[in-house]
Structure formats: structure tokens, C-alpha cells
Write a structure and sequence with these properties.
- The protein folds into two domains: 2-194, Hypothetical protein, domain 2 (Endonuclease III, domain 1); 212-304, Nucleoside Triphosphate Pyrophosphohydrolase (Alpha-Beta Complex), CATH 3.90.79.10.
- Helices cover 43% and strands 12% of the residues.
- The chain has 13 helices and seven strands.
- Strands 2, 3, 4 and 7 form a four-stranded antiparallel sheet that branches.
- It binds a DNA duplex (11 and 11 nucleotides) through residues 32-44, 75-81, 84, 108-114, 117, 129, 131-134, 168-169, 172-173, 175-176, 181-183, 205-208, 211, 236-238, 258-263, 295-296.
Length: 309
DNA sequence: AATCCGGGGTA
DNA sequence: TACCCAGGATT
């Protein structure tokens, strides 16, 4: 198929130099794919490199405490990914690395996309991936809101049996740097002659709820160079992460505003200088805080008051 | 099929 | 501000 050739040729010329494209280690590719779930490439790169330096292979990850894994993940979001990755590492360390998409799919945290991505990139299996980029590119080629099933069928029909890894990555790369959500660069698209849209008309944007404003008061208490932190427990959101204890607002300055994308909330944090130890709180030095799974809000607050660099 | 799960980039 | 990002699990 001509479309395939054009796409692969373009990818060969224009692909970005990304760290996970420099390895053939299935474990490293797996880690990258988990981190890339709903997370931009630019945000993942530093996390990926730190994570692999800390947990260089499946065994290192499987035997590490979950808190260490969460600490490495702190700030990346979707912490269930880290929990699933850690749990799956134990399974892989025991049973070996699954060699097919079907087997990969059985691991926690690996769905249809990630199974196909790892199988194709690490093992050369001709399994088409469908992510946000592929959805957009295929919908535009067809000029319509195709179902996920239809998109998958088309991608599977186009995929190169010789180099499925390059084909999958090429389709995603095209969506990421040419066929972008808004203002796509149609004139320099290798697939323009196959495209029925040549604009950003498809797919139809999905509407969302209006953001909710919320105010949060936190206690910033220091004692002998230590700061008081509380571990969230029994919460669906950010369970196990460390944050500043909550306090009654009297007066003070706004430390940070954090937008929670999924919760669709804008949270304004205010400081309440405190001295006493809150129930269940613990005191940490700067060095210790660096090794904790902190919420992003807590990280921003601690930076704003100069406790963290 | 809907909803939940983080955080950040971008126009 | 609104939308989206190399999605998965749960209901």
C-alpha cells in the first residue's frame, strides 16, 4: 500500500530522537509506554530517565518498595499506573516477560493500546495501536467520527507486517507533530493525498464540565529545619501521597493554584503558619522530602515558601 | 457507555 | 479558557 510507504519514509526522515527509541529492552519500552499514557512526551522524558536509572531492570522494580516507586512517579499523575507497574513487575519477575500482545494484556495497567505498543515495538508483532493520535489521523483521513473499532480495523489493514514497530510509531508521530488537534500542518503531511479532510475538522471535540473553584487551607509548620507532612490514607484520590496538613483558615497568602485536570477543579492553596504537630503527621528534612511521593500541590507549596529548591 | 483518575502544555 | 495528551479500570 502506498500510504504505508509514504508514512514509513516520512518517519525515517522526521522522527524525533526519543530515549525509548534508543533501546530494544522490552522492560524499558514497557516503562515508557506506561508513562506515556495520557501524558505528553516532553513531560515523560525526564521521568523516564530517572526511573530507569533507579530501577534498571524488572527485578530492581519488583523488589523495590512501592513508596520508592511512587516517589519516582511523584508529579507525573495517574498514580495507579505506578501501582500497577509495580505489581506487574512482580509477576514478570516470577513468570518471565510476556512475548505477545494477548499475554501482555493480562498484566495490570496494560490495556489494548499498551499491549499492542509493547508487542509491536519490542517483539515485532503486527498489532496496530489505537491511541489519541491514531484516532485523530484516521478520522481525518476518512473525514468522519469513526468508532474505535473502525479505527482499529483501518490501522490493522494498513500496518506493515515487516516493520510494525515503525508503522505504529509513525502514525502516532504524525498525529503528534503534523496532524495536530488544532491547526494541523497539512501542506507538509506525507498523507495529504490520501486525506479527505485536510483541516482540524475531525474528530468532533468532546465537551466537558465547567471547572469548579475550591479553596484549600494548609498548615506549613517547620521545626528545626524539618517540615510537617501528612500521609493521605483511605482516599480514592492520591492515596498514600504526602501533603501539607489541612488547617483552619485565618489569614495568609495564597501559596499556589493547582488545576486538577480530571477533577476539573482549580484549587487555591493558602498557608496557615502552624507550630503544633497535627494528628498523624510526621516531620521531614529537605533531603527526606525529596524521597517522598509528594502531591504536586504540596511540592508547589513547599517551593513557594522556599523549603524546597 | 460513562466516569474516574493528575498534571501540564498550548492556542 | 478549553482542549488534549503514545489509556486503563471500574461501574
Amino acid at each position: 500500500m502506498e500510504l504505508r510507504k509514504r508514512l514509513l519514509a516520512w518517519y525515517g526522515r522526521k522522527k524525533r530522537d526519543l530515549p525509548w527509541r534508543r533501546t530494544s529492552d522490552p522492560y524499558a519500552i514497557w516503562v515508557s509506554e506506561i508513562m506515556l499514557q495520557q501524558t505528553r512526551v516532553a513531560a515523560v522524558v525526564p521521568y523516564y530517565e530517572r526511573f530507569l536509572a533507579r530501577f534498571p531492570d524488572v527485578c530492581a522494580l519488583a523488589t523495590a518498595p512501592l513508596d520508592d516507586v511512587l516517589a519516582q512517579w511523584s508529579g507525573l499523575g495517574y498514580y495507579r499506573r505506578a501501582r500497577h507497574l509495580h505489581a506487574a513487575a512482580a509477576i514478570v519477575a516470577r513468570d518471565g516477560f510476556p512475548g505477545t500482545a494477548k499475554e501482555l494484556r493480562a498484566l495490570p495497567g496494560i490495556g489494548a493500546y499498551t499491549a499492542a505498543a509493547i508487542a509491536s515495538i519490542a517483539f515485532g508483532e503486527a498489532a496496530a495501536v489505537v491511541d489519541g493520535n491514531v484516532e485523530r489521523v484516521v478520522c481525518r483521513l476518512a473525514a468522519g467520527d469513526l468508532t474505535k473499532r473502525e479505527i482499529g480495523e483501518r490501522a490493522q489493514a494498513w500496518i506493515s507486517p515487516r516493520s510494525p514497530a515503525n508503522f505504529n510509531q509513525a502514525l502516532m508521530e504524525l498525529g503528534a507533530i503534523v496532524c495536530t488537534p488544532r491547526s494541523p500542518s497539512c501542506p507538509r503531511c506525507p498523507l495529504r493525498e490520501f486525506c479527505a479532510t485536510r483541516s482540524d475538522r475531525w474528530p468532533t471535540p468532546r465537551k466537558r464540565a465547567a471547572p469548579i473553584d475550591k479553596r484549600v487551607e494548609v498548615v506549613f509548620a517547620t521545626r528545626g529545619g524539618r517540615v510537617q507532612l501528612l500521609r493521605r490514607s483511605g482516599t480514592a484520590l492520591l492515596d498514600g501521597m504526602w501533603e501539607l496538613p489541612s488547617g483552619k483558615q485565618t489569614d495568609g497568602d495564597v501559596l499556589a493554584t493547582v488545576k486538577h485536570g480530571v477533577l476539573n477543579q482549580r484549587l487555591s492553596y493558602r498557608v496557615w503558619p502552624g507550630r503544633r504537630t497535627a494528628a498523624g503527621a510526621r516531620w521531614f528534612t529537605v533531603r527526606e522530602v525529596g524521597e517522598l511521593p509528594l502531591t504536586t500541590a504540596a511540592r508547589k507549596c513547599l517551593k513557594a515558601v522556599g523549603f524546597l529548591p
